Hints:
By secondary structure, the chain is α/β, with parallel strands linked by helices.
Amino acid sequence: MRSLEEWLTHQERVHPQSIELGLERLERVLRRLDWRQPSVPVITIAGTNGKGSVAAHTTAILRAAGHRVGTFTSPHLRDYRERIRIDDEKVDVAPLLSAFERIEEACRPGAPASGAPAAGVRTQGASSSDGAISLTFFEYNALAAFLVFESAGLDAWVLEVGMGGRLDAVNVVDPTVAVVVSIGLDHQEFLGASAEAIAREKAGIFRAGVPAVLGNRRMPGVLEELARSLGAPLKRLGSEFDFSRRGKERWHYRGSRWDLDDLPAPALAGDIQYANAATAIAAIEELPRRLEIPAEAIARGLGAVRLEGRFQTILFAGIEWILDVAHNPDAARVLAANLAARPAAGRTLGVCGILADKDAAGVAAELGPAVDEWWVATTHGARGASSAALAARMAPHLETPVHLAADIEGGCAAALAAARPGDRIVVFGSFHSVAPALDWLEARVRLPAASSPAAARCEYTVPPRIP
């Protein structure tokens, strides 16, 4: 039997394209597996930014209410198994490998399909027994999550969309509630060049009669248009649900089912987390009443939620470190606002690595005024960018000193050497930046260790090749 590392290496290489959006391949495999739609409630979460935070809040609240929850997210920081969690614990290796074996068998040429399409799986003309099917790395990942969850006896599934929505692998599952957290410009080469085009793709998770939760006060109007055209009940932040702050530590939520006047602040740092928490509560409100959610469970869940790399703070060598996976202009704007709301006594030193296909100039425009000195690092892999190329793209928007670093670890070391008491160091740019920073810090302070050699794979779109 292959090891996890061997399986992931195989999955990186088996499909000719690292990204190929579409549901036809998955539907063929699911028919061969005789798969059925889940019998428990499913919350599907799409959006440009904030998906992981909403998924984390949703999972924490459901768990605090005593329910067993399967959560699928991507990418991961340091361990592939972070993507598939049961009760917020990384999936065990044995069921994951078993799922990979089943998927591989179903992909082989001549693998029989069931006599009829699996419930909820759309047919597209494939015969009951046809040729070999190759899946992308992410498609293997999503299908494995579905099979693991199916076998685990769960009470609810929480599924984060990888890219877009309409053609994302997660969209083969019919949700009980569909959430779009935010719309911004990212992955334009796949989703479209405008916010409206991207919104159309993300609205692809909507279903007739299924509540559509919109987690931002300013959304492209096409989301509402498409929801109404399908007959999906709309639930919008600022309208059908809302929140208000009660000082620094308390807040009020108002929705269709609950009016919660004295909630504790979300454990995840940053003002945006109030909107993310409210969006999670709004989605949970729409679940069947048989899934009991006491008000006290909501408060406990808000206090228990954890998520690495989202304005995560670590104290090391007398310096506050802030790690954030902000990798596009909208996320950078939120990071800048969070930094402004938590001013440092001294300087803010920035260490960043941004992939070549991201809007580095837009990120610099948002964060330039917030950072006093920069270390721009090379990112590696098929989508990586050299520090020199990245600095050239960012330079027009930066008025403070910029240094080049061979990698994130080198940037962290150089920033620490330059730091003085009262300064802080912010590491950001992508999962490819935060993951090595966490590893670098882990070697120096007590942090949770990555537990798998597969931890190097930090991006669902283009996994790095293994020599």
